[in-house]
Amino acid sequence: MTRFLFCCDPLRSTRPDAQFAGEAETVRECGGRVALLDHDALLAGDLGAALARVERGSGPYWYRGWMIPASRYEELERALTARGCSLMTDASAYRRAHELPGWYGVFAGLTPRSVWRPVAVSGSASGDEAPAALTASVVLAALAEPLGAGPGIVKDFVKSRKHEWHEACYVPELTDRAHLASVAGRFCELQGDSLAGGLVLRAYEPFVPGGEARVWWVDGEPVLVTAHPDTPDRLPSPALDPVRDAVKQLGCHWVTTDLALRDDGVWRVVEVGDGQVSGLPAGVDAAPLFTALIGEGPGRSA
User: Fold this and answer.
1) Angle at the Cα of 70 from the Cα atoms of 67 and 72, rounded to 5 degrees
2) What does the alpha-carbon distance between residue 75 and residue 181 come to, in Å, rounded to a whole number?
């Protein structure tokens, strides 16, 4: 029996989070089993409370819920292992699909040019730079140099702040040190403790209006194409063959790719994500996705 580990409702721990309740019901209708994880407890580092409703020795799980920092996902994997369970997507594969440095090399010819620099995690002794040092103009200028002149985007390893476009995302000219430092500094300030992995600079590419398509891949095959949750009323029809090869090379069981049409008519990969934490637009029939995941069977471990 294929099992899914859904986030529970923060106020009613015996029920799935309202955001995922419909998906949990679809899983059951497709023949899967559902267990519940306390996401808040997981983020707080209380693994016992997080997994209190997960039966010991209950087998491998697909996780399905809110984003989890890669370091917390590693803790989740270890805690499940200690309970005689496992994750279908292991921690290494999760980081590879979830964070830009993990997937960029495979998708480099299909996505805007990018550079990055890691940032220290609170309490870490890794030696990575703290955000204040990372956003110094001289450091940013050196980081941006391989991208050359032109506009760019500031983000972290996972997310941008596109809704604060001019304030904390878009840089009209990457060689303008002062402006780049202002945008990067504001981005880090707004992200705060949610800053994931480090700072990323991406070359800006203009896309035509029409929204992005989110493609859901299971073992290298596209099993569902949806709109992006930010533009649920717009669903483009992207070319998938070049992306299929890259997804297979990435080697992760369940991933998503967000695609947009550049103004020269070329489809580009805007983002790659771990499918477990990628959002489905409201109202989408997710049965084809969960049927494919259930079809993988309970014996597979990542």
Assistant:
1) 85
2) 34
What's phi and psi for 155, nearest 5 deg?
A: -155, 180
How far apart are the C-alpha atoms of 24 and 270, rounded to whole Å? 28
Place of tokens 């998503």: 256
Q: Could you please report the per-residue DSSP string of 130-181?
A: PHHHHT-HHHHHHHHGGG-SS-EEEEESS-B-GGGHHHHTEES-TT-HHHHH
Mean pLDDT for 223-241 is 91
Give per-residue pLDDT as tens, 114-159.
Answer: 999 998 654 344 446 667 777 788 899 999 999 999 999 999 999 9
The CA distance from 134 to 152, in Å, is 17
Q: Which two tokens stand for residue 10?
A: 């923060």
pLDDT, average across residues 226-230: 92
Q: CA 121, CA 76: separation in Å to the nearest integer?
A: 18
Report CA dihedral (227, 162, 272, 72) to the nearest 10 degrees.
-120
Say if pTM beats, i.e. exceeds, 0.85.
Answer: yes
Average of pLDDT values for 37-51?
97
Tell me the HSE value of 12 on the side-chain side, using a 13 A CA sphere.
6
